[in-house]
Each structure stands twice: as C-alpha cells, then as structure tokens.
C-alpha cells in the first residue's frame, strides 16, 4: 500500500481495514470474486491484497471483454476486413490482441485499412467521410459499452447510411456469472459486483444470485475505499448468514439502471442462442447479435463470415483461474510461455485480465511498501 | 476498456439536443447525451463518459473523486488519449437546407 496516504480519506481506509479484520472469522477462508476487470486492475494497482487478512482470497472474474473474446472472432473480423474497400475500425484495446495470423495492428502493417476509434460514433463518422468504402466497427464490451453501439446503429439506420456495419461481439455478464456458479469446482462465498455495467443494468438482474444461489453480492465503486467497504459489506452478510444484493456504488448506480440505455439495447440487439468465451467455452444466451431490423448493418449478415474456431491452447489453464481454482501464477504457462508480451491464454491479453494484472503488479511487489497491519 | 471519464457539460448543441460540448480535464469535446434522454443534463452538470457517450449524471464531488481515481489507477493518460480521440462533430452533415421548426 505505497499510496495509502495519498488515497482519499486514508484514516477511513485504515478503519475499514481494521473493521474487516474484526468481522472476518479467522477460522475460515473467504473466496470473493470481483467480476469486473476494472476492479481487478484497481485491486492490484492499489495493493489492496496487502491490507486484507490472509484468509480473504480475491478471485478475478470474467469481466474483461478483450480477454474473453475467442481468437476465432478476431480472425473472422479480420477476414471480413481483408476484402477490398473495407475499413476495420475498433477501440485501441483491440489493436494488439493476437489473431491466428497476427493482431489488427500487424494486419495494418501488412496493408489492411485499420483505424482506431474511441467511440462507435466515430466509426459512423468514418463511414460518412468515406462513402466509397465500407466501415466495419468491431464491437466488443459488456453492457457498459453495448448501449453506445446500439445508439450508433439507430443513427446509421435513421440516416440510411449503408456503408457501415457492426461485427458484434457484445457479451452479457449475468450468464457468465451463472456459468461460474454452475461449475462443479466452484467455491465462491460472494461477489463484488461490477460498477459500470450496473449503471446500465441496475441491481435487479443480480437478485437470483442472492435468492437462488444464496451468495451475497455488493455492487462496488473503483476507489480503494469503495472496494474495502464492499468487502466489509460482504463479510457482514456472510457473518449474519445473509445473502442480499447491496449497492455500495449508489452515487453512480441506481437499482433500476439506465432505462434509456436498456431501451436502446432492446431495440437493436437480441440474445444469441450461445456464444463462446475464451477460457470458459460456450455459454448459452451470453452474447448479443443484431435484430432482423438491423440486418443491413450486421457485418455477419452482409459478409460471408468464415466462422473460424480456434480452440483455447490446452496447456493454458484460464478456466481454472477464472473459477478461482488456481491462482494466476499456478497456471503451468504463467510467466514463462504466457506473458503480457506474448499472451497464450485469455487472461494475459488485456491489462484488465487477471494474469496480466498479476504479472504487472505482483512481480514488482518489492517496490511497494506494505502497510503495517494492526496486530 | 471500461474507463468512465468525468466531464462538465458546457453547452447543449443548438441543432442536436443529444449532443453536448463537455469539458474533460481541460479538453473540450462533443459528447453524446443519447443515453441520458430520460434525465437530460444541463450546462453545469457533471457526467460520466464512456466511449463518447454520457452514461450517468454525477455530483461535482464524485466527478472530482473519479478524476483522482483515474489518476491513482494510472489511467489519466489513457483517459485523456480517449477523450482527445473523440471526433464527434455537431450536426453530422445532414442539416436540412430549410430549417423547419419541429
């Protein structure tokens, strides 16, 4: 906790950490999953593990959209963009993600027209500016990002802009949580719920986790104090034998979510019957495709898609790490064959992936001075 | 990926009510307000921005704290790069020749 005094309200952070130690039962081991990749990044960056008691184990969930995207989808998107006159537009996060024959950036070096955009709207603008070419936006992201793609598609349709399409890889978080809870080696006690996904979907979609699975979940903000408070709220529930959905991030997340965003998504998207996740296999109704009304803007309908399937490398143990059965460093490839520079498995691909975060921060841990925990 | 960047709404576009000029850490960019159509922000309001779209209204205090969080996460530069990259323009080339009052 090099930064603890730089944090807002350091005294409150220390008090919350003390309260966590007081509430946690020293006789038991806690396995808590933070679902969101942004939380994973924050937990490592802030060195939060160093101020948590050792019997609280944070497990890094599937909420990193770049990480869970199967390589075959990248290959498919690049295959479409290899046609003459097609511009491949994507967020910067996608540019270094490897496909079978290289990343989008490497394809650009070989002559493909690849553009970084910072907003789906900018991909639309690119289409307006290049009427003789076709702009394909390679869309990724959870419910945080999907509404922006939806609004962009609504605009494209309204404008009748025909040289624009979306190659849709949007995924939804709830089925991924269900898949983790359904796995036979699951041993989680509770969840830190995603912050920004929940600004869109609200808190209601998590209720089954509490009611049916008897696991507490607390929607959390991203500051150190937010995350510690959320962990404390989970421990209090566990101590009281409760399982509820609680919202620690009330300053941004409402119970009902963002109705305008949900409307836009419902208008444009439908659930795919199933979708493959890297490290997790096929998960039913876990991803979005474009509705029939938007078929003209659906890259998968407008172009022939090879439907490339690349199986996850067998030696990589991403699935076990995702379910919390293994720590990142326990994977047989971690740090030798699989590194952020040369990612083999899904979780090493993006800085928000648990293996990449672990690699970047735990390996430099000696630089961090540990906060002396009260004895 | 899921950066949420705070910005202060400066003005709403006269031609397109779902487009606003927003000040993000000193950079002025157009941001889409389409996802907040049920609760439209006014000039002076703070919003959280994700991929060029305002996602939610927040208080000024929360906005300042969010900037601090980005700073602590080492993501300030990434956020600025994202914001500078927004190329959203006003009235995207389809302003009718004759302005008919709606």
Low-confidence stretches of chain B: 91-102
Q: Beta-sheet strand percentage of chain B?
A: 25-35%
Numbering strands along the chain, what is their spatial order in the largest sheet of chain B?
Answer: 3-2-1-4-5
**Radius of gyration of chain B over all CA atoms, rounded:** 14 Å
- The total of helices of chain A stands at 15
Main β-sheet description of chain A: 5 strands, parallel
CATH superfamily of the largest domain in chain A: HypD, alpha/beta domain 1
Determine the mean pLDDT of chain B. 84
Number of helices of chain B: 2
Helicity level of chain B, as a percent range? 10-25%
Largest sheet of chain B: 5 strands, antiparallel
Multimerization state: heterodimer
Instruction: Write the CATH architecture name of the largest domain in chain A.
Output: 3-Layer(aba) Sandwich
What is the succession of H and E elements of chain B?
A: EEEEEHH
Short overview:
With 375 residues, chain A is of the alpha/beta class. Helix content of chain A is 36%, strand content 17%. Chain A has helices spanning 10-23, 37-45, 65-68, 71-81, 104-109, 120-129, 146-159, 173-182, 195-201, 207-211, 224-239, 259-268, 299-302, 318-322, 354-362, and strands at residues 30-36, 56-63, 86-90, 114-116, 134-141, 164-170, 190-193, 217-219, 245-247, 269-271, 274-277, 281-284, 288-290.
Descriptive account of the structure:
The complex is a heterodimer of chains A (375) and B (102). Chain A folds into three domains: 5-65 and 173-247, 3-Layer(aba) Sandwich (Rossmann fold), CATH 3.40.50.11750; 71-170 and 272-302, HypD, alpha/beta domain 2 (Rossmann fold, 3-Layer(aba) Sandwich); 311-358, no CATH class. Chain A contains 15 helices and 13 strands. Chain A has helices at 10-23, 37-45, 65-68, 71-81, 104-109, 120-129, 146-159, 173-182, 195-201, 207-211, 224-239, 259-268, 299-302, 318-322, 354-362, and strands at 30-36, 56-63, 86-90, 114-116, 134-141, 164-170, 190-193, 217-219, 245-247, 269-271, 274-277, 281-284, 288-290. In chain A, the strands form four sheets. Chain A has a five-stranded parallel beta sheet. Chain A has a four-stranded parallel beta sheet with strand order 4-3-5-6, sandwiched between helices. A two-stranded antiparallel sheet of chain A has the order 10-13. In chain A, a hairpin with a 3-residue loop joins strand 11 and strand 12. In chain A, helix 2 (37-45) runs parallel beside helix 15 (354-362). Chain A is globular. Mean pLDDT of chain A is 91; it is low at 366-375. With 102 residues, chain B is of the alpha+beta class. Chain B contains two helices and five strands; from the N terminus they run E-E-E-E-E-H-H. The A-B interface holds A 3, 6-8, 36-38, 41-42, 45-46, 64-66, 91-93, 116-122, 124-125, 128, 140-142, 144-145, 147-148, 151, 159, 195-197, 199-200, 222-224, 251-252, 258-261, 264, 350, 352 and B 1-4, 32, 34-38, 48, 50-53, 55-56, 58-59, 62, 65, 68-69, 72-74, 81-83, 85-89, 92-94.
């Amino acid at each position: 906790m090099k930064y603890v005094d730089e944090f807002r309200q350091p005294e409150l952070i220390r008090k919350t950490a003390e309260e966590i130690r007081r509430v946690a039962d020293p006789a038991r081991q806690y396995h808590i999953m933070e679902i969101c990749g942004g939380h994973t990044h924050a937990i490592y960056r802030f060195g939060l593990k160093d101020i948590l008691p050792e019997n609280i184990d944070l497990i890094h969930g599937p909420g990193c959209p770049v990480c869970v995207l199967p390589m075959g989808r990248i290959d498919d998107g690049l295959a479409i963009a290899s046609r003459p006159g097609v511009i491949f537009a994507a967020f910067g996060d996608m540019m270094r993600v490897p496909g079978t024959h290289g990343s989008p950036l490497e394809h650009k070096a070989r002559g493909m027209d690849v553009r970084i955009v910072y907003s789906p709207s900018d991909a639309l603008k690119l289409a307006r500016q290049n009427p003789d070419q076709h702009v394909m936006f390679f869309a990724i992201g959870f419910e945080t990002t999907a509404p922006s793609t939806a609004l962009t598609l609504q605009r494209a349709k309204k404008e009748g802009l025909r040289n624009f399409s979306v190659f849709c890889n949007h995924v939804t978080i709830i089925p991924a949580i269900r898949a983790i809870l359904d796995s036979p080696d699951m041993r989680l006690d509770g969840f830190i719920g995603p912050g920004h996904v929940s600004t869109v979907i609200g808190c209601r979609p998590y209720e089954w986790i509490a009611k049916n699975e008897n696991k507490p979940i607390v929607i959390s903000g991203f500051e150190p104090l937010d995350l510690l408070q959320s962990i404390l709220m989970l421990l209090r529930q566990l101590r009281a034998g409760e399982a509820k959905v609680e919202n620690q991030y009330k300053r941004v997340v409402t119970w009902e979510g963002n109705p305008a965003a949900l409307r836009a998504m419902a208008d444009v998207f439908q659930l795919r019957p199933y979708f493959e996740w890297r490290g997790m296999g096929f998960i039913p109704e876990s991803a979005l495709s474009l509705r029939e009304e938007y078929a003209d803007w659906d890259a998968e309908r407008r172009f022939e898609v090879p439907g490339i399937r690349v199986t996850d490398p067998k030696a990589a143990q991403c699935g076990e790490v995702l379910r919390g059965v293994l720590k990142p460093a326990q994977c047989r490839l971690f740090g030798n064959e699989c590194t952020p520079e040369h990612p083999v498995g899904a979780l090493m691909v993006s800085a928000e992936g648990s293996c990449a975060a672990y690699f970047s921060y735990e390996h430099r841990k000696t630089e961090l001075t540990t906060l002396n925990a009260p004895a | 990926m899921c950066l949420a960047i705070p910005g202060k709404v400066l003005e709403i576009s006269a031609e397109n009510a779902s487009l606003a000029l927003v000040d993000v850490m000193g950079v002025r960019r157009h941001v889409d307000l389409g996802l907040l159509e049920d609760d439209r922000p006014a000039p002076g309001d703070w919003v959280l921005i994700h991929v060029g779209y305002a996602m939610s209204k927040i208080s000024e205090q929360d906005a300042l704290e969010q900037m601090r969080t980005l700073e602590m996460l080492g993501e300030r530069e990434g956020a600025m790069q994202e914001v500078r990259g927004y190329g959203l323009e006003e009235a995207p080339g389809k302003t009718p020749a004759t302005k008919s009052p709606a």
